[in-house]
Design a protein that fits this description.
mainly alpha; 2 helices; about 100 residues; flat; 2 domains
């Protein structure tokens, strides 16, 4: 299993700086979205909650937090597998080039 990180000296500075700026902007957006969602949830909390109907023979749907956690756990494992696969391919190509 290949899991080494690429030294940043191998990546041009403009690429790493752009990535850092993107992540910073993304975090700012996410913070604003969470704040707006919290405000909306507080405003809607005055209304009664409606229970979703159940379908006989089907289990109850998991809550949103459980679904979100599962989806990200699965995606993390998928990304790890894809990373390992891509690195194996690049290693195979590098081996062929030097042979």
């Amino acid at each position: 299993m290949v899991t080494t990180k690429t030294p940043t000296t191998d990546i041009p500075e403009i690429v790493t700086k752009s990535g850092e700026q993107f992540l910073s902007a993304l975090k700012q957006y996410q913070e604003a979205a969470v704040d707006a969602t919290t405000t909306l949830a507080k405003a809607l909390s005055v209304f009664p909650a409606v229970d979703l109907p159940t379908v006989p023979g089907l289990p109850a749907a998991p809550n949103a937090k459980a679904l979100t956690t599962y989806a990200f756990d699965f995606t993390t494992e998928l990304l790890k597998a894809q990373r390992e696969f891509a690195l194996q391919l690049t290693n195979a190509l590098a081996t062929e080039k030097t042979a």
